[in-house]
Every structure is written in structure tokens, then in C-alpha cells.
Amino acid sequence: MQAQMFKVRVDALREEAHGIRSFSVSRLDGLPFDSYEPGAHIDVTGPTGITRQYSLCGDPSCRDSHVFAVKKEDESRGGSRSLHDEVRIGSELSIGAPRNLFRLEETASEHILIGAGIGITPLLSMAYRLVAIDAPFTLHYFARSETHAAFLPLLARAPFDRHVKLHFGVGREALSDELDALLRDANERAHVYTCGPAPFMDVVVASAQKRLPADAIHLERFKAEPHAQPETSLDTFDVKIASSGETVRVDATTSIVDALASIGIEVDTSCGEGVCGTCMVDVVSGEPEHRDHCLSKAERASNSVICCCVSRSRSPVLVLDL
Ligand code: FES
Q1: CB of 123 within 8 A of CB of 139?
Q2: Which residue from 86, 133, 149, 258 has the fewest beta carbons nearer than 10 Å?
Q3: What is the enclosing helix (H) or strand (E) of 228?
Q4: Does the UniProt entry include the keyword Transcription (predicted)?
């Protein structure tokens, strides 16, 4: 079952960089949006009916509008392409409520935001918040060139200009050294946040891990990366509903979401590929085989939640808080 959506009107469109367009939307019913946490993302359903997740990149304290940005993907199956080619000012879209899996740790002594390409978007909403609470931070933005870098006029103005460092045309071979250099003086209680292509984030994480503990390194993925098939998951297992004691069998070709639907239990879903966190459910007992891309290391280690669209079980029975 798809999470609840509501109608918005497109009030402004901007070409922010080569292939990156931003959208400012307001509610059709004229009501303000609920406030949201910096780093949050929303579901957006475009003209083709395809739903994708996009990070909010405006000021989280502004409730009149939501701003998100979309990169036109070469291999788009219609989602990003239709948002670029078919949407005009005045168009109506459907969006979901913000969800956040990429949280600021506001008690950190220093915040180091490292983004590449369209990965600037969640970091921008974090930057608004960090300015608002007067927290020390630096936003490092990597892009192929100036024309590929989004929001440059905004980043070049106060209050962001003194926090922003731009890195253009850094090749794959030089990236590790560049990141090592910029993280060398990181305070030991600093937190690092990164968003961008998976290979870029892998290098950021490798560099940050040389200096900081794992729980001080945060990342946001835009799409699922292939998982190696784990050897420990079971082909078939049972899911038990904690509230009723009812049990349903999950076989090798069925997701937990689909198995639950077969006994009339609907779990909200959106991406269906373990990225957005919509289908997250608390685990009462049993050992999940986590195949998502959105839980934190701490959540994985605790086995306290599971993303039911993709994850499976290592134990014969998984009891869920439903
Ligand atoms: S529906 Fe997005 S993580 Fe499961």
C-alpha cells in the first residue's frame, strides 16, 4: 500500500545546473506544510504516475513551500524525465509527508557536510538548520564543473558563503587524497554527512573512518545498490504478528510486504527497493537479514527494525510489532 499523498501546485521552477531542476511547491488546499527535519525526503508522483523520492533542499523552518531538486537521469524510466519535460509552473503534483533517515546530530562539536552533484540537496536543508542554530559547519561540494554544480548563486551568498568550499573536477584518483586533506583536522567529536553517487560516498566513508567512529558518519543513498546474496538468509521463514499471534509463511519469491498483504495486513510502501524507509516495522524477536540501504549501522546491529519490502530473516520465525 502506498503511503498517503496530497496535492501540491508548482509555484517556481529553476534550472539549477546542467540537468538539475528545482521545484518549489505549495499545498493546493492553501494550508502550511508540517515542519520537517533537515535531511528529510519526500515521495513525488509526477505526470506519468511514477513515484520517486527526492530530498527537501529548502529552509526546514519555512512552512509555506517545499523545495526539492531533480536530476534528469539518462536512464530515466519516466520519473525524472517527465518532471523535467512536462511540468510547468501551475502544474499539479502529488507528494508525501517528509520522512527522515539522514539526521543531523546537533550535539556534535563540528559538522562536515560532503556532497557531490545532486547529493547537495539534503545537505542544503541541513546547512539552513546549522546556520539557524549557529553551529560550526563546513559544506564541501564536489562537482564535475561549475555548470554541473547546483545552487551556486545561493551557496555564494550569505549566510552560506563563509561555510562553503567548492571542489570542481577532482578525478577519481585524486579524490581520496583530497578528502583525507579536508578531514585531517576534523575535531574528534565531529560528525560527517555525505550524499552523492555510491562510489563517491564509499571514498568519503573510507576517509572519515580513519578519524571518526562509525556512528559519527552519516550517509544518504538515492537508489539501491546491488547486494551480494547473503549466505545466512533462509529461503522460507515465518512472520508472526505480535498483536494477534497470526503467522504467515514467506517463501523465496515473496516479500514480507506481499506475504503480510496476503493475510490482509497492509504495510505502507513507497520505493519498494529498500531506500526510503516507508515500510519500516519494529521487530519484537527474531533476527532480520537486512537488505535495505537506509537503516543506520546502529539500527542494523540492534535488529530492532526491518524494512519489509526487501529484507528477510535469518531465524525461522520473525515476530513483528504489528
Ligand atoms: S518501501 Fe522504501 S524501504 Fe521499503
Answers
A1: yes
A2: 133
A3: none
A4: no
Cα three-residue angle 159-133-195, rounded to 5 degrees:
70
Q: What's the gap in Å between 254 CA and the centre of ligand 1?
A: 15
Domain boundary, last residue among 96, 120, 152: 96
Ligand 1 pocket check: which of 270, 281, 299 to mutate, most ligand atoms within 8 Å of Cβ? 270
Range of the domain at 65: 5-96
The residue behind cell 520473525 is: 318
- Cα of 308 vs centre of ligand 1, distance in Å, is 7
- Note the pLDDT tens digit of each residue in 300-310: 888 999 999 99
In a domain, 226, yes or no: no
Cβ-based neighbours of 118, under 8 Å, separated by 6 or more: 20, 69, 70, 71, 150, 196, 222
Does the Cβ of 271 fall within 6 Å of ligand 1? Answer: yes
Residue 35 is given by DSSP the state P
pLDDT in tens, 53-111: 999 999 999 999 999 999 998 776 678 889 999 999 999 999 999 999 899 999 999 99
Counting every residue written for the chain, the total comes to 322
Is the Cβ–Cβ distance between 239 and 250 less than 8 Å?
Answer: yes
Domain assignment present for residue 15? The answer is yes
CATH code for the domain in which residue 180 is found: 3.40.50.80
